[in-house]
């Protein structure tokens, strides 16, 4: 659906602004306001919340078209099919060749991930999109016939323009999954002998933890790129061993504001250390800054990454406050991510999100480091680590941050012939961390067992969900007397 609507809408002079079909009324209303949505093309199955949100925001039904491409999809009474738009005549595609017009003409308004709050709307221009394609695909083409399987959501920057436009330029074959399902994904890899995929860490973990990995062959895979969040090197290597013997599995760094990935290992480059790349896209300037905004760019020095270049969007739509906070006087975008470049290998590594680093006894603790260690435990299939403060304590009432782990436990594999596994305990989880990491990285804020870790559509952990839960916990008298280091079980 998304690729057709992207191409048709942009060709007609519109601006693509895909939305998550899982959104509820509140989220859709926010999207309408932030992107100034003028019309919707929507499948009938998700019409309900779209209609309610649209009417609350003043959009009438004649601005909502039904995308009824499947046999069982009917057009509800009072609505028009998207096919009505096809009957309104056609004109030639307007080719933009002026550089300034390319830079100021939007191709898409895309929501950011919303990991720390409500999403903002990034303005991706035609210049951003065409520059990104050229610098990514015209360098180091692989020597085989590419067969892609795309699973990432069509409203996300990971697919705009990568999925919707790039295959038409490169001529690469591609298959697009309508809806992700693990076994269907693995079966499609085998059936279509897929050679190239983009993947996110939760999917890597799901595959290497699933017995389905033995049922389907991934040996056709020759190039795997992983992004959206850090992935520990051990999990990366476990997945790579499932692929072709000559496969490269590399991690990348990027964000909505950079039109997708901006750091890479160009083929045949490979890596097994957890780096996110040895090169940034051509024509991209980068620097590292400290908490005060000072330029501290140097090898082996961690700092907030700032980027400037042709793939960096010019700002957030209708949001001057966010723009003032995100861009510095030199036009660099402050990514909010702390990285460093290894002086010997010249490889780049993510330390963590700047706002998510946990401060303990003068040290900065990386949640992603702890998450990688937790995933080494055979009973843990997913996790998230956050820091928080309790009122009271030293330093004028502000204590060191406490470290808490939210943990998803692997389902029991017991059978009638073997005794059930005893439940994993908080003490065992804390002991696992103590055995692998320095004492100041201990789980002083406790362990919470949860059924799942909330994530954005692109696979990023929604840490704000945990922050909100902790705020409620502190405000509730029911939590009084419950030790920070205890065990909890929660439904998020």
Automatic annotation (TrEMBL):
Cross-referenced Pfam families: AMP-binding (PF00501), AMP-binding_C (PF13193)
GO molecular function annotation: CoA-ligase activity
Annotated region (Disordered), positions in chain: 473-492
Domain AMP-dependent synthetase/ligase residue range list: 4-317
Segments forming domain AMP-binding enzyme C-terminal: 369-460
Species, as recorded: Fonsecaea pedrosoi CBS 271.37
A GO biological-process term: secondary metabolic process
Cross-referenced InterPro entries: AMP-bd_C, AMP-bd_C_sf, AMP-dep_synth/lig_dom, ANL_N_sf
Name this protein carries in UniProt: AMP-dependent synthetase/ligase domain-containing protein
PANTHER family in UniProt: ENZYME, PUTATIVE (AFU_ORTHOLOGUE AFUA_5G14270)-RELATED (PTHR24096:SF265), LONG-CHAIN-FATTY-ACID--COA LIGASE (PTHR24096)
């Amino acid at each position: 659906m998304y690729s057709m609507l992207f191409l048709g809408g942009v060709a007609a002079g519109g601006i693509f602004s895909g939305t998550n079909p899982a959104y509820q009324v509140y989220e859709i209303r926010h999207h309408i306001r932030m992107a100034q949505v003028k019309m919707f093309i929507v499948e009938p199955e998700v019409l309900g919340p779209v209609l309610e949100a649209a009417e609350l925001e003043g959009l009438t039904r004649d601005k909502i078209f039904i995308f009824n491409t499947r046999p069982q999809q009917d057009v509800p009474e009072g609505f028009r099919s998207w096919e009505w738009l096809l009957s309104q005549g056609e004109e030639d595609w307007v080719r933009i060749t002026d550089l300034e017009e390319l830079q100021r003409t939007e191709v898409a308004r895309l929501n950011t991930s919303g990991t720390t709050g409500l999403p903002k709307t990034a303005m991706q221009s035609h210049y951003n999109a065409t520059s990104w394609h050229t610098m990514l695909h015209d360098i180091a083409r692989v020597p085989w016939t590419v067969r892609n399987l795309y699973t990432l959501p069509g409203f996300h920057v990971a697919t705009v323009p990568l999925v919707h436009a790039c295959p038409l330029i490169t001529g690469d074959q591609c298959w697009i999954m309508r809806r992700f399902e693990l076994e269907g994904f693995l079966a499609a890899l085998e059936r279509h002998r897929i050679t190239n995929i983009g993947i996110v860490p939760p999917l890597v973990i799901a595959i290497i933890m699933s017995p389905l990995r033995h049922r389907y062959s991934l040996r056709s895979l020759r190039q795997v790129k992983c992004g959206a969040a850090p992935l520990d090197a051990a999990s990366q290597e476990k997945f790579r061993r499932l692929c072709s013997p000559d496969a490269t599995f590399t991690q990348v760094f990027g964000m909505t504001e950079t039109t997708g990935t901006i750091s890479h290992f160009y083929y045949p480059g490979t890596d097994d250390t957890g780096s996110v790349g040895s090169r940034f896209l051509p024509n991209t300037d980068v620097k590292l800054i400290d908490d005060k905004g000072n330029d501290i760019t140097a090898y082996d020095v961690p700092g907030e990454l700032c980027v400037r270049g042709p793939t960096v969007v010019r700002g957030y739509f209708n949001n001057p406050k966010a723009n003032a906070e995100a861009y510095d006087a030199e036009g660099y975008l402050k990514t909010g991510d702390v990285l460093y470049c290894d002086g010997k290998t010249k490889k780049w590594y993510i330390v963590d999100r700047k706002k998510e680093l946990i401060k303990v006894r003068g040290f900065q603790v990386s949640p992603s480091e702890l998450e990688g260690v937790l995933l080494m435990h055979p009973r843990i299939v997913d996790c998230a680590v956050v820091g928080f403060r309790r009122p009271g304590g030293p330093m004028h009432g502000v204590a060191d941050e406490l470290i808490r782990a939210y943990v998803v436990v692997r389902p029991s594999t017991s059978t009638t012939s073997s005794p059930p596994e005893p439940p994993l305990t908080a003490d065992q989880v804390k002991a696992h961390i103590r055995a692998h990491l320095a004492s100041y990285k201990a789980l002083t804020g406790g362990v919470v067992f949860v059924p799942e870790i909330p994530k954005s559509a692109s696979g990023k952990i929604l840490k704000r969900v945990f922050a909100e839960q902790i705020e409620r916990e502190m405000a509730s008298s029911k939590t009084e007397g419950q030790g920070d280091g205890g065990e909890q079980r929660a439904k998020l």
